[in-house]
Amino acid sequence: MKKLIVRTITGATFVAALIGSMLYSHETFGAMFMLITLLAVNEFCTLVKQYKKTTFNKWIAIAGGFFLFLASFFVFNFEVANPLRLFLPYILIMAYAFIGQLFDKNGKTLDNVAYFSLSQVYAALPFALLNMLAAGHNGYSFVLPLSIFIFIWSNDTGAFCFGCTLGRHKMFERVSPKKTWEGFAGGALVAVVAGYVMSLYFNIMDMYQWMGMALVVVVFATLGDLIESSMKREMQIKDSGNMLPGHGGILDRFDSTLLAIPAVIIYLNLIGIL
Fold this sequence. Notes:
α2 (26-52) packs antiparallel against α6 (109-134), α6 (109-134) crosses α10 (250-270) and α8 packs across α9. The chain contains ten helices and two strands, in the order ααααααββαααα. It folds into two domains: 1-138, no CATH class; 142-274, no CATH class. A two-stranded antiparallel sheet has the order 1-2. By secondary structure, the chain is an all-alpha fold. A hairpin with a 2-residue loop joins β1 (135-136) and β2.
């Protein structure tokens, strides 16, 4: 019972902080996801250093995440005369991290380069790309970033309810024993309904486009969840961290968004919204 109470309080606080930061202002949105970016990169680097004994500088990776998000925040949301100039600190950090391997005597060059790069692509880039979704035609708009999380939460709720009651056929039992195709279908159904509801309140897309976006989120959020589960299984760990009591680490809470955000951007470009 105590664990359930802790999990409930943590979950409610987390959701309230996330939604509140997006609704309140552009600045609070940026501050919240900047913090999440730094925590995600730190957590990822900590895990791979323990698992692969990598020797790259974790703080350089965190600095990379910081400058990537910061540059994206300004480029996508403000009129910048020379956008590339804002990415210069990030480019220099990446160059420093790669060139620095020439002087590393630990024989971990391949692992260091691979996992340093993955810390940026996997843990930092998706949150930086959220700035593209927040850049509305008339300034900051919380609608698209928030809708991704609404669809993910709707999918999780539907998958849990349908999976518990009707789940019979396992999706990827080796990776995630509790996931079923019935749960996946139920989650998709609830998310599509959420997409229909979004279309009633926000006219930036029509009903079918909103529902299509919901399906894109469901598919790639599920893949993101399965990929992180596969990585944790290989590392033989239950949670990616203990940042959120009862919920694990930052990557545990955002694994679904890491693939969903880029997929949504591609989808919205294809239908001409972005």
